[in-house]
Amino acid sequence: MFEVVRVMSQHGPVRVELAKWHGRLVVVKRLTGVSPEAMRRLEREAAVARKLDHENVVPLLSTIDGALVYAYVPGVNLAEALTSGPLPVPRAVKVTRDVLRALEHAHVNGVIHCDVKPSNVLIRGERALLTDFGFAKDLALTAITGDQQLLGTPNYMAPEQFQGVRTDHRSDLYGAAALLYHALTGDPPYGSQVLRFLTGDDRVTLAPLPSDAAWLAPVIERALRREPERRFAHAGAMLDALMAVPTGA
Q: Quick one: CA dihedral 1, 54, 213, 161, positive or negative?
């Protein structure tokens, strides 16, 4: 059914493969062992992915015998792009706008991504696409796990998510701001002090942005606020703030 080209990743019993299917390259996500929990997560991811149809979200093409078949997006992910250093400011802003458009679509459809980070953003030409809804929450479904379980990546994780408090769409906005900060500076927010910040240490402060990106500080600082109610109300509001940019960005 699938002609595997190469294994892209393996995390526990879940393998991601680049494969040929009906004459096209696709990305296949499937189990390689017996794991009821992993199976439930894949089923949940499929249910979430079916709700999304947006140019900045990697589309789910099909589900076959429990495997998820996604469109293949040639190019690199943002984490790979950042290995050579920060992005130019206009490029970093453009990528973040695309991520926010994807999040706005997801949130309107009752989906919280819960793991917005550079490796989950694919870059194809001038367009960025959000991928990997494996940790996502569908507000219309019963959660597989409670908020007590730590799901996500601390460098891009909102404090309420890290602390196991109930998350909402504003947690994703924190992740988008952390991603933008990393793209502009070359490092995630708070660096080696991130765990101190996430556990409530107010002495931890954010290092300044480069001078050519200083105008973005109010947007980033607002979205990175510890209290969700002090962040942007929704992805569209943060996107609007990023649209009010100097010419060329």
A: negative
Q: What is the pLDDT of residues 35-89, one digit of tens each?
A: 898 999 999 999 999 999 999 999 999 999 999 999 999 999 999 999 999 999 9
Secondary structure (DSSP) of 197-229: HHTT-TT--PPPPPGGGGGGHHHHHHHT-SSGG
Q: CATH number of the domain at 76-243, please?
A: 1.10.510.10
Give domain 3-71's CATH architecture. 2-Layer Sandwich (3.30)
Marked catalytic residue, from 98, 115, 138, 172: 115
Task: Domain ranges for the chain, please list them.
Answer: 3-71, 76-243
Distance CA 155, CA 139 (A): 24
Instruction: Give the whole-angstrom CA distance, residue 224 versus residue 160.
Output: 12
Nearest alpha-carbon partner for 47 in 60, 65, 29: 60
DSSP H or E segment with residue 14: strand 14-21
Residue 115 appears among annotated catalytic residues: yes
